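We modelled the chain as a single entity of 236 amino acids. Its sequence is:
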Amino acid sequence: MDMRTENIRVYLSTSHPCPYLPGQTATSLIIDPDLETDHYRLTQLTLNGFRRSGELIYRPHCSQCQACVSVRIPVNEFSPNRAQRRVLKKNKDLSVTKLAPTFKQEHFELYWRYQNSRHPGSDMCDRNPDKYHQFLISNTCNTVFYEFTLNNQLVAVSVVDELIDGLSAVYTFFEPDQSKRSLGTFAILWQIMDVSARNLDWLYLGYWINQCEKMSYKTKFQPIEGFRNGVWHRLT
């Protein structure tokens, strides 16, 4: 499929406060919600800088700002740095299980503790299980949950979409009192290893903004590529 030639309806969202840059407004391109999205089509949309959130597939499209950059890691060229090797060593006692996308109360309780610790008062910090399910799970793509446990106790969950050429990291949440383990970093390292084990090429990490400190962790994984002006290129 070629995004330039296939007849796909794309809508422009209304403006809303930017969730990343204070004081700015944002708009997004939204893929037609009625479009039938399969494994192949989601891959092509991801290659063109789009991202999934629940059933919604979108790409930032702000007239006065191009700060949001879709990024991906070429896993066959990646080698963990010293700090990342320490994270791998620190978490070698964890067990990882791949699960089909389904609602589990234990996952939801961990998700709420994570949001309450990291994003108190935000729209994400909501004890409504329906919103949690709508945010993470889609019926139109291949999604996997990684369950990370320590001595049979759940400490982290990563949600990823399976693509033809790799994996797309949707979201990771983890036990707030396990911060010394750097579980967010470990989850990305695990996903990189899984992409490599599948003999695929890319781990897509969603959007990166240079001015947003919360996103700075993404460029600590090198090499990394960004999508700008219709082309993927290396970020330094």
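As a brief sanity check on the tokenised model: The first helix runs from residue 39 to 47. DSSP finds five helices and 14 strands in the chain.
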